Amino acid sequence: MKKTLLYLFLAGLLACSAVWAKIPSVPVSELVADSRHKQATPVIIHIIQTYHYKKKILDNDLSSEILDNYLDNLDQNRSFFTQEDINQFEKYRFELDEALSEAELDPAFEIFRRYRQRVAERSLYAIEILKSDFDFTVDEEFRFDRRDTSWLEDTNSLNEIWRKRVKNDYLNLKLSGKEQHEIRETLTKRYTRIRTSTFQLDANDVFQTFINAYTTAIEPHTSYFSPRTSENFDISMSLSLEGIGAVLRGESDYTQVQKVITGGPAEMGGALKAEDKIIGVGQKKDGEIVDVIGWRLDDVVDLIRGPKGSVVRLEILPKGTGAEGPSRIISITRDKIKLEEQAAQKSIIDLPRSGGRVGVIDVATFYSDFAAQARGEKNYKSTSRDVRKLLKDLEHDKVDGIIVDLRGNGGGSLSEALEFTGLFIGTGPIVQTKDSSGKIEINNDPDPGIVYGGPLAVLVDRNSASASEIYAGAIQDYRRGIIIGEPTFGKGTVQNIVNINRFIRDSDEDHGRLKTTIAQFFRISGGSNQHKGVIPDIIFPTVYDKEKHGERSLDNALPWDEVKPARYMKASAPIDSFRVVKELHEKRIMSDKLFQLLLKKQALENEASSRKTVSLLASERKIEREKLKHAKRTLQNEFRLAQGLSPLPEDDGTEAADNIEEAEPVDILLNETAQILIDLILPFHTTASNIDVKKQHRKPVTTFGQNL
């Protein structure tokens, strides 16, 4: 058997050498630390040990964690190293602290060179296995997510895993309708790309990966940017970036959509969603779809990026679809992502049953055009300036109350968060900041005036983070309004980006940058948003694993903490009535068909996304695909029927069943938030069964939210 495998290995080497020769690879002799890395290392350690909020000694315990992080960073899915390799690396477990302190980086490069060797072996083995005939009548399973498993004992064990991986990849393409020659061509390119992507990694990439094994052993938001990564970071922060408007991340062998940027082409088109996986990229309307499974994130981003007006086609596995598919292809026209496209927007919800009218202000991010402000332009764009005008517009529209929608708002400018909060309170502190020395600074409302003092609800979700949590926490502490939705992300820390070149003299080389956590936010009530997030007054019963999302899911995240409360005066929101409207809400959603369908949809998506194994039995896979497709189509039709629309036929050939959101023209959670706010405004004796009071006969609680 071993002799046969050796022949296969050599045959594969000859078959692929022509392809690999066209791809520039980094010579193994260049995979060593150079002077830049040795100069940057002590600077990075000094900055972290001096200025980082979390004091953690570089010792044997940290060395052990660095080794584990580094191995995970290289081989996240346990698909290349064997336990035999890991055993050989054990000699470094308690030596990496000294290696870093002395800028002796040989262990990191030795481990990477072994990793590169193993990737080449696996790539060749996969290509050779691809030439076999697979029996899809054998009842066996493939575990595609191995992140939580042990390292496989030896090469034979790895071979078995890779045999199943290739068989699974083949079956996926077969079920999607591809012919045998297409399948083998696609997968040969895929496995070759795994090798070539790894062989293109240079010493800077190795250094960045190793240093980040150190930084993340301290805290998850601290990271080192190599010169190339620094350049990409600058591009991602530019509001004139030409692209699709999506934040991407590497997720095992896949490129996953982390966030769709408000106002960008992807968001405007509506076809690409957070948590979708991108498995192929094509240029123009008819360009070949290039398989990108197993590609480096940077390379996928380079393919997707492009000039304004050009078309990119993405093959995606929609959120809630397992690794086995089915996939679908969407087209997006690239455009510039500008500040004004992310500006706050207003809308109005009329609730005919209760006669209520609720204004909505959607704030996607806390932005400010600092460059225009510095130039002295009077009408520069910012969240607080835009929302100030929207609040006045909504009051002119005679709304009964206002919802601030912060779902998906990951934060932004702290100064804007303070200004924004000040629009809703008279005066006082908003957030406390504690630095690494223990000094506490109280950040106050910069403007003592109040723009809107009426009934207020704040809608948040699991992705509301940082500055969003500062605002929501302050509104809750002041009892200025009611917080509704999901527990927020839980990021209560402050980062600063340091240019390492400032610390190194007599060098014209670029040494990269370091993002480090320098402070922590605390609410004016004393507790932190860190780790726990903001807990809403009314929590929607949405379906997701809270322990696997947000700050609480990150290794080495700072724990929840508290400081002395600041001095502030609470507003007069009817806090006791929150219990009453919560009971009305819970009773209402039990009989709300759309709300219950939303929960059913989330449960379906979570079930598919949480799977770690898949059957390699073709008949079973077909049944699973049809079952999922049928479940999605049935759910989509239930949404349509609940809204008075006719159902779609089972065999109409549309792809809509893979995108249930297309059947949800109404925002179910936003509408329920509006109803909760109206319940608060109506007289307290109103119940869910008798809300049929004409608007002109209602007696709103006029003291709601007014500062004392």
Quick overview of this protein structure:
The chain is an alpha+beta fold and 708 residues long. The chain contains 20 helices and 21 strands.
Tell me the fraction of residues in β-strands, as a range.
Answer: 15-25%
Please compute the radius of gyration using only Cα atoms: 28 Å
- What is the helix fraction of residues, given as a range? 25-40%
Overall spatial form: globular
Number of helices: 20
Q: Total strand count, please?
A: 21
Question: What is the highest CATH level, the class of the largest domain?
Answer: Alpha Beta
How many structural domains in the coordinates?
A: 3
Major sheet description: 6 strands, antiparallel
Mean pLDDT equals 84
Alpha carbon gap, first and last residue: 83 Å
The helix-and-strand class reads alpha+beta
Question: If you had to describe this structure to a student in words, what would you say it looks like?
Answer:
By secondary structure, the protein is of the alpha+beta class. The chain has 3 domains: about 1-220, no CATH class; about 240-335, Pdz3 Domain (Roll); about 340-575, 2-enoyl-CoA Hydratase, Chain A, domain 1 (Alpha-Beta Complex). It contains 20 helices and 21 strands. Strands 4, 5, 6, 7, 8 and 9 form a 6-stranded antiparallel sheet that branches. α1 crosses α6 (about 105-130). The longest helix is centred in the last third of the chain and has 25 residues, at about 620-640. The radius of gyration is 28 Å and the shape is globular.
Structural descriptors:
708 residues; alpha+beta; Pdz3 Domain; 2-enoyl-CoA Hydratase, Chain A, domain 1; 6-stranded antiparallel sheet; 6-stranded mixed sheet; 20 helices; 15% strand; disordered N terminus; disordered C terminus
